[in-house]
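Thread: "does anyone have the structure for this chain?"

Original post by V.I.:
We have the sequence but no experimental structure in hand. Need at least a predicted one for the grant figures.
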Amino acid sequence: MQIARIETFLLHPGSGKNLLFARVETDDGFTGWGEAYVTRGKEKVIEECICCMVPYLIGRSSFEIRHLGQVMFDDFAIRRASMELLSAWSAVEIALWDILGKRAGLPVYNLLGGASRGRVRVYANGWSNGGSIEQIVERALAVKAMGFTAAKFDPFPGPWRTHVDFEVEDQAIASVRAVRKAVGDEFEILIEAHRRFSPSHAIRIGQRLAEFGITWYEEPCLSDNIELLAEVRRALPNLPIVTGEAIYSKEAFFHALERRAADVLNPDICAIGGIGAMLDIAAMAQPQAVVMAPHNYNSVLMGFAATLHVCAVIPNFRIAEYFVNFVDACAAVATTMPVVKDGWAELPTVPGLGVEVDVERLRKRPYREFAHKPLTAIGEEYPRRGGVG
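Reply from O.Q.:
Generated one for you, tokens below.
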């Protein structure tokens, strides 16, 4: 039952970023899979962080999931939280829950208190990829044809800066208007802003977006200064505000709740410390009447499966994210994976997370670098042509 080996794998899915998995083995023959959140260009940084954790974990009991997370924070990180630390630990933590489920012969959600729902609703992301309004509309219709009843996209063209001019703003509003007209009123549109705006910009844009009956307005301001977001929420009482994908510690989530900065939290299970941390955040949010809509810019394998198990359990669940552009690459390496149909994910019935991967197939899709984004030069307001902010 002791941790005997931890191995990492990077998968190049063909778009977005490389995906980072971890496989944990015990000395009595159990194996579990987990995943770390990464950003493009930092995949190997977080992989190395996992590797540096290994000496602290080998020989430890695979049952001691909570304790080991505290060990990583106290002894490995010397009580300093960061995305890199918590993403790396998430991969190991999720794999340990997978092992625990397999050892118990139960799906993980039954170890967490049992399901509150028979299936989990998901929304599509990873489909828009910029381009003209006509191209975005075409892709939105394709997502609807796949059976999804909700989809998220960022209508604001790059680069990402705190202030945008009216031409950029008008282009974004025109894009949302066109998508709404194409998909109809019953289809849920979720708008992502990627922490771009000052409060004055965010409020003005939110007032314009409200016309289209959007489901939410996600991260219009930096979450590092949560007061900015709280200001926007107070000014837009009828437009649900979301934050959480760029918040990593439970302390920071507590502060966001304390300041009443959001109606919806979207933490990423692969970036906050894993399954236990997601349960803790959901428990903090519930008394504040804040719902959970977990972020999941990860694979549709371990990261999504871990999200699915928690979403099955927590009472204040709203909807979860599902990246359609990763499906084919993940299916190519998986032998067992979550089933999503018509915008709903089925609960796994097998022990553990319900994900298994063919390691040899995985090794045939190794890490590959994506093209680097050009940086802004001195005297330039924006990156040179071709860059994405």
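V.I.: this helps a lot. The first strand starts at residue 3 and ends at 11.
O.Q.: and Confidence is low (pLDDT under 50) at residues 382-389.
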